[in-house]
Amino acid sequence: MSKPLTIADLKNLARRRVPKMFFDYADSGAWTEGTYRANEDDFSKIKLRQRVLVDMTDRSLATTMVGERAAMPVALAPTGMTGMQHADGEMLAAKAAEEFGVPFTLSTMSICSIEDVASVTTRPFWFQLYVLRDRGFVERLIGRAKAANCSALVVTADLQILGQRHKDIRNGLSAPPKWTLNSALQLATRPQWCLDMLRTQRRSFGNIVGHASNVSDLSSLGAWTAEQFDPRLSWDDIRWIKDLWGGKLIIKGILDEEDARAAADTGADAIIVSNHGGRQLDGAPSSISMLPKIVDAVGDRIEVHFDGGIRSGQDVLKAVALGARGTYIGRPFLYGLGAMGKQGVTTALEIIRKEMDITMALCGKRDIQHIDRSVLANTPF
Ligand SMILES: Cc1cc2nc3c(=O)[nH]c(=O)nc-3n(C[C@H](O)[C@H](O)[C@H](O)COP(=O)(O)O)c2cc1C
C-alpha cells in the first residue's frame, strides 16, 4: 500500500499485520456494537461553518490538558494489551507521543509495565488505574506510578463489571489464551508479528504478573483478573484514591450529567466523557452526543475531556467546538501501532494534526483556543 493518508488506511494495514484475535480485540464493541458504531457515526451529523476571506496565517493547535502543554488537544487513551498489537507496543507508543508532544496514558492492563515505559521516556506520562478489589495491590500500583514520576492519574469508573464482546469469546481471547488450531493459524499467517514477539520478553500483563499476590504466570493471572473488577466501587473510593495519589486526577467514563456533577464534587481536575469506546454498555448514547450536555452541566467547574469515535482531525475539532478541553484517541493509535509500530503511531498523530489544522483554517480560525460552537453550522445534540 502507498503511504497511509487516513486512519482507515492504517486500520486496513493493521488488519493485515496483526493476528485476527488481537486486531478484533481492538476493532470490537460490546454485544451488538451499536454504541461502538454510533460513536463514529454521530460525528458526521455535525456540520462545520465554511468561512472565507479571513486571515488564515500563523495557525496554532497548541493547548494544555490539566495544565500540561500539548502540541494539539489529543492524548493517547489507555488501552489494555497494547503490547499485543505490536511487540513492546506501550513503549513504542509512549515514545511516539513524547516526540510528538502529546500525553500518553498507560493502562493498568498493559503488557509493558510502568517501569518499562518510564525507562524509555523522559517526559512524565499518565497512568490509568482500575480500582481493583485487592486494595493493597492498588496502593502499590499508585506507589509505582508515583515512583515513575507519572504526572496524572486517570481513574476509570465505567468498568465495575466487564461488558461482553462476542468477537473475543469466539476468538478464544482470554488469559490464559485458549490455543486452538484456528488461533495457531492466525499466528502462522502473521510471521513478522511473531518474530517481533519472539524478540521480546514482554508478553504478559507487566503491571500485574509478579506484583499481585499469587499471580506468577498466565494461568494464575486469569483467575485473579476474573475476580478483581469491583462491583461495589463508589464515589468514596474515588475520594480515597484522590488522597492516596495527591496529584492531578482525571475521572474517566462519565456519560451522564448527574455523574458529571458528582465527579466535579470530588474536586478532581478533569473528567473524560467516555463510554469506553462502546465496549461496556451497548445501547448507551454516543460519546459526542452527550458531550454538550455534560459541558453545560459542569464545564464551569471542571475540565471536560472527551473520547470515543475520533477518526480524524475534523472529529477532534468538533469535540473541541462542543467544549472539550482535550480529547483521547484509542483505536486510531492502535491501528497505527499494529500497521507500522512506532512510526505508525506517529503517522496517526500526523494525519490527525494535518486534518485538524486545515479544517480549522477553512472554518476561518487560526488558534485552537478560539474554537467554540460558533464554528459549527448545526448542533444536532
Ligand atoms: C483495545 C482497547 C483496550 C482498552 N483498554 C482500556 C483500558 O485498559 N483502560 C481504560 O480505561 N480504557 C480502555 N479502553 C478504552 C479507551 O481508553 C478509550 O475510552 C476508547 O478507546 C476511546 O474510543 P476510540 O477507540 O474510538 O478512540 C480500551 C479501548 C480499546 C479499543
Main β-sheet: number of strands, strand sense, barrel status?
8 strands, parallel
Structural class category: alpha/beta
Approximately how much helix is present in the residues? 40-55%
The SSE string, one letter per element, is HHHEEEHEHEHEHHHHHEHEHEHEH
> What topology, given as strand order, has the largest sheet?
3-10-9-8-7-6-5-4
What binds here, in terms of ligands, is: flavin mononucleotide
Tally of discrete structural domains: 1
General description of the model:
This protein has 381 residues and is an alpha/beta fold. The chain has one domain (7-375): TIM Barrel (Alpha-Beta Barrel), CATH 3.20.20.70. The chain has helices spanning 7-17, 20-26, 34-41, 89-100, 114-120, 135-147, 166-170, 181-188, 191-199, 218-228, 235-245, 257-265, 287-298, 313-321, 331-362, and strands spanning 63-65, 68-70, 74-76, 105-106, 126-129, 152-156, 248-254, 270-273, 303-307, 326-329. It has an eight-stranded parallel beta sheet. Strands 1-2 form a two-stranded antiparallel ribbon. It is globular and about 65 Å long. Flavin mononucleotide binds at residues 25-26, 39, 77-80, 107, 109, 128, 156, 252, 274, 276-277, 279, 307-310, 329-331.
Question: What is this structure's SSE topology?
Answer:
Layout: H1 7-17, H2 20-26, H3 34-41, E1 63-65, E2 68-70, E3 74-76, H4 89-100, E4 105-106, H5 114-120, E5 126-129, H6 135-147, E6 152-156, H7 166-170, H8 181-188, H9 191-199, H10 218-228, H11 235-245, E7 248-254, H12 257-265, E8 270-273, H13 287-298, E9 303-307, H14 313-321, E10 326-329, H15 331-362
Parallel strand pairs: 3-10, 4-5, 5-6, 6-7, 7-8, 8-9, 9-10
Antiparallel strand pairs: 1-2
Helix pairs in contact: 1-15, 4-5, 4-15, 12-13, 14-15
The chain binds flavin mononucleotide.
Residues 25-26, 39, 77-80, 107, 109, 128, 156, 252, 274, 276-277, 279, 307-310, 329-331 line the site of flavin mononucleotide.
